[in-house]
Amino acid sequence: MRTLVHLSDLHFGRVDAELLDPLRDLLHGIAPDVVVVSGDLTQRAKSEQFEQARAWLDTLPGPQIIVPGNHDISLYNVFRRFVLPLDRYKRYITDELEPVYIDDEIAVMGINTARSLTIKDGRVNKEQVAAIRARLGGLDRHITRIIVTHHPFDLPAHADQDALVDRAPMAMQAFSECGVDLLLSGHMHASHSGSTADRYQMSEYAALVVQAGTATSTRGRGEVNSFNVVRVEHDKVEVDRYGWDMVGKMFSVMSTEKFLRSGNVWAAHTDGLYAAGL
């Protein structure tokens, strides 16, 4: 079994500083095999915000798979937005925009969906899909394949459907051929886990989507600060959602969802949701 901590939408520049130390200490206690950060490390892509993000990330366990989000591209500086869109991200965070971690149980591949030509929307292109095929397609079937993006490939029915990453159907076709199991994302500041079966009608294939809320930002959009702990086995995934307890001043488990794989189809376990306190 492998344990991943899934953080997203840190938004340094709009961080609730009270959360940083308790979150760091908890992550060390969880001792994950990989820490995933699915974008929006900063609020406005400023140097000092990237410096703050880098300093905090350096206090967390590793290895880390980090991808940029739309907030990590300058919004108002036109030159930086279109000529040097992720220059500061690469300088302070990592120059690897599509990082990969592979061991004998999991393969985690980050994909950059942030684009200069859109304000907040994301996109994947043919070159990225080809890289996914090349990197993941030939792996042993017992290795669980995980894709990390900022923008989501699936959403709850009530969400703004414009938030879906552009060209998602093209990517999903490649995912089905490569046997991608798990899609981790952020962007919406809302937690969600489920199968892609309803949105993408694909023969004998459905991936598992796990979306994280914002771990540290003050921009909660109606949901408490949260993050996910994802425990991965070959045919089973368990997702613990941790939320901030404003009274106890700590993160605690709010719900647990369990998913099982049958062939190439992931689906929720029939008794898979356990809300804390119920």
Automatic annotation (TrEMBL):
Q: Which InterPro entries match?
A: Calcineurin-like_PHP, CNP_phosphodiesterase-III, Metallo-depent_PP-like
SUPFAM superfamilies cross-referenced by the UniProt entry: Metallo-dependent phosphatases
Q: Which domain of life is it from?
A: Bacteria
**Record domain Calcineurin-like phosphoesterase: where:** 4-190
Q: Which Gene3D superfamilies match?
A: 3.60.21.10
Report if keyword Hydrolase is assigned.
yes
Swiss-Prot/TrEMBL keywords: Hydrolase, Iron, Metal-binding
* The keyword Hydrolase appears for this protein: yes
**One Pfam family linked to the record:** Metallophos
PANTHER family linked: CYCLIC NUCLEOTIDE PHOSPHODIESTERASE CBUA0032-RELATED, PHOSPHOHYDROLASE
**What family is this?**
Belongs to the cyclic nucleotide phosphodiesterase class-III family.
Put simply, this protein is called Metallophosphoesterase
What organism does the UniProt record list as the source?
Massilia agrisoli
Q: What is the lineage of its organism?
A: Bacteria, Pseudomonadati, Pseudomonadota, Betaproteobacteria, Burkholderiales
